[in-house]
Amino acid sequence: MFATLSDRLADTFKNLRGKGRLSEADIDATAREIRIALLEADVALPVVREFVAAIKERARGEEVSGALNPAQQVIKIVNEELVAILGGETRRLRYAKTGPTVIMLAGLQGAGKTTLAAKLALWLKEQGKTPMLVACDLQRPNAVNQLQVNGERVGVPVFAPEPGNGVGDPVSVARASVEEAKRKLHDVVIVDTAGRLGVDAELMQQAADIRDAIAPDEVLFVVDAMIGQDAVTTAQAFLDGVGFDGVVLTKLDGDARGGAALSIASVTGRPVMFASNGEKMTDFDLFHPDRMASRILD
Ligand code: GDP
């Protein structure tokens, strides 16, 4: 991810090398190139505008520092702004003070929620937690089964409605799962919810009802990094319809241009918390905005 953006920015900064001091024209030219680089990476236009304006303002106002040449100064500013957009400090999970920590996943169908649920469960297990997975995606016929298969792969129990036994009410399943977790002393509950191909009112209502029923400690919006220009609309719809505390980016191993990550974090003001980067259950980790920014500017 971010390969093109990274190359483009490297070219931009090359042009600044050897300059003694940045002129107004240098700053304008650099800002223009950063703008093009971001647009080509599918960053949403309002986000690009804001980003470039911030860079320009800071580049003009920056004291000439003895330690850094102009190119390095611009890189430093871009780096800091990238980190800020992506959420600043690495945002860690907030655990409940008493009782099980409830994590609810929301997102479009195909975003990678079900896979992610199991990856997150494994990650938590490796940190000594005793998670339980909950199948509340009762829309997609195979989703419950897929979660069960994934749960088995990572050795984490799955709470699911009995086949033929009142299937169809994800809110009751979610509520019952938290009780079950308390009984069986699971300290984290991960609730997989239904996703549709597009944003729709019924899906949002169902997710909002589940949220109201179980009062999650964290709602995570799971989004495919390849989503491109649709990212902002989709993220905004989930923010308005369900609300979320953090973003999980999936399929970072693909050739996504990366703009979705920047746009979503900027427009929603929610940090990217986790990254999923492959089909293996271990292809998953905390997202570190500073490391990602350094990679982009490498
Ligand atoms: P859901 O509909 O949101 O539950 O999505 P799934 O978990 O079923 O994932 C949809 C497809 O994306 C599946 O084929 C997954 O194997 C694949 N997938 C999920 N996460 C990743 C990832 O990080 N990288 C890659 N390459 N594929 C992924």
How helix-rich are the residues, as a percent range? Answer: 40-55%
**Beginning-to-end CA distance, first to last residue:** 13 Å
Q: Which structural class best describes the helix and strand composition?
A: alpha/beta
Strand content: 5-15%
Based on CA inertia axes, which overall geometry fits?
elongated
Main sheet?
Answer: 8 strands, mixed
In this entry the ligands are: guanosine-5'-diphosphate
Name the average pLDDT.
90
Strand order of the largest sheet: 3-2-4-1-5-6-7-8
- Uncertain segments: none
Rg: 21 Å
Strand runs, count = 8
Helix count from the secondary structure assignment: 11
Write the H/E string, N to C: HHHHEHEHEHEHEHEHEEH
Could you please describe the fold and organization of this structure?
Belongs to the GTP-binding SRP family. SRP54 subfamily. It catalyses: GTP + H2O = GDP + phosphate + H(+). The chain has 298 residues and is an alpha/beta fold. It is built from eleven helices and eight strands. The mean pLDDT is 90. It has an eight-stranded mixed sheet, sandwiched between helices. It binds guanosine-5'-diphosphate (GDP). Guanosine-5'-diphosphate (GDP) is lined by residues 107, 109-115, 195, 250-251, 253-254, 276-279, 283.
